[in-house]
Design brief:
Elements lengths: L1 E9 L16 H13 L6 E2 L8 E11 L5 H12 L4 E9 L11 E9 L13 E2 L6 H8 L4 E4 L14 E12 L2 E8 L6 H13 L6 H9 L14 E7 L4
Parallel strand pairs: 3-10, 5-6
Antiparallel strand pairs: 1-3, 1-4, 2-3, 5-9, 5-10, 7-8, 8-9
Helix pairs in contact: 1-2, 3-4
């Protein structure tokens, strides 16, 4: 048996999320069905993250175990051929040690959230970004964002359906910058709570729009209460960018 590490890019729009769901299609289901068609085996895919419905990925890491002897480049080519026309691509495929695990070996995860700050409707980027027509002050968002960096109880920014054992997480990095009409929010941590990034972005957007004072982000964090959350950003603009592993 060979364990293959996969790097996946996908458009999350058509899916109920990455993980298999009983009530709709998922990225995991599409990849597992393609792998079964290639190998003739029942293959289980494990991923570094569990993205929600509508959330995208530029570099999601995952792994599958295959008994059939296959070179990595042939497996990658076959998976990509069978995944068409799904908006899922295998960008990289390589054999790894049997104890390498896409989720449990991961030491860090990075996301980027894209806001398009303009009044004109989105055309090419519809479903790929959050459109905010009100002018946004990205510098105010950047200043406020630093309040959330570090070890904190993120209960306010945690979904009621979150299954994590503790709301305490260490946020390693949260940066906001403007590139033309786009406002990009980059977040890095070992792991995140369910909806944590989208909740942080929603509140930062309130700061950027002038509806919240910069200090209110810290006040919301200190409240440790989901009722203190101002806004949960939509999934359209969220992208899983990277997973980090020892030795890579």
């Amino acid at each position: 048996m060979t364990r293959f590490a996969l790097t996946l890019e996908f458009d999350g729009g058509p899916y109920m999320g990455l993980q298999r769901q009983s009530h709709g299609p998922s990225v995991q289901q599409a990849v597992e069905e393609a792998a079964r068609a290639v190998t003739g085996e029942t293959v289980a895919m494990h991923a570094a993250g569990r993205t929600d419905a509508g959330v995208h990925a530029l570099g999601m890491r995952a792994h599958i175990d295959v008994e059939k002897p296959l070179p990595a480049f042939r497996l990658m080519g076959a998976l990509n051929a069978l995944l068409r026309p799904h908006p899922i691509a295998v960008l990289d495929c390589m054999p790894v040690e049997d104890d390498w695990h896409a989720r449990f070996s991961c030491t860090g995860r990075a996301y980027v959230y894209r806001i398009v700050n303009r009044r004109a409707p989105l055309t090419l980027e519809r479903g790929k970004a959050w459109q905010v027509g009100t002018p946004i002050d990205a510098e105010a968002m950047q200043r406020a964002a630093q309040t959330l960096v570090g070890l904190h109880d993120f209960t306010t920014f945690r979904s009621a359906h979150c299954q994590a054992s503790s709301p305490v997480k260490t946020l390693d990095r949260l940066e906001v910058r403007r590139e033309g009409d786009s406002v990009l929010i980059e977040a890095e941590a070992r792991s995140f709570l369910h909806h944590q990034v989208r909740s942080m972005v929603g509140c930062l957007a309130l700061v950027g729009m002038g509806r919240w004072r910069e200090e209110q982000l810290g006040e919301a964090l200190a409240a440790k209460d989901r009722q203190a959350l101002g806004l949960n950003a939509p999934p359209d603009g969220l992208y899983f960018v990277r997973a980090n592993y020892p030795g890579e």
